[in-house]
Amino acid sequence: MIPGLRFLFKASVIGDTGVGKTSLVQRYASDCFDGQGRSTVGVEFSAKTLDVNDRSVKLHIWDCSGNNTFLPIIEHYFRKTQGFIVTFDLTDPETLNHVYSWIERVNRVNKNTDPVPILLVGNKCDCREIVTDDTIREIMDEYPQIFRYAKVSAKTGEGIDDMFTVFAAYLSTYYRYTGKAIATTLDIMADSGTQNVEEDGWHCCVI
Question: Which CATH class is domain 6-204?
């Protein structure tokens, strides 16, 4: 491990109810799958640290409800997010169509900043896929902030670790070399009164 090269990122997992957002997070953070289809009430929090290219990266993962009732609450958590994981169900084309509206919400809340990086994730690859690659390509062409598309299965665990590793690697490179992490850190300190995370060796930002 290279001393000092440690990063802390706020990540929000968003998408329609029932696409498996909570299952994705649970599979990654705890390596479990309960299959109960429990809907998130508001926002739930998890954290995990991983090593990426000799850098220690900590992800603060906010699992946001897909229920419209909670939109005013979850949109608050969109602010100061360094990366979004926009999730849809590979067996339900309607959830892919709704990806447009989720990304528009993200961009509206963060309209005064540069576009926030997005990882597009299709869950339930262990089932028969119905969505078309053409629609996925159209979405990625329309939103260049989508840096990668991944197919995963929260049920079997397929692709989950790789997905989060790619996500963390991209954010650490993106914010390290653009210099945008510094400004974001200062903004968060001003908004929330948190201490400078660089004091204990962690760089970037958290609320």
Answer: alpha beta
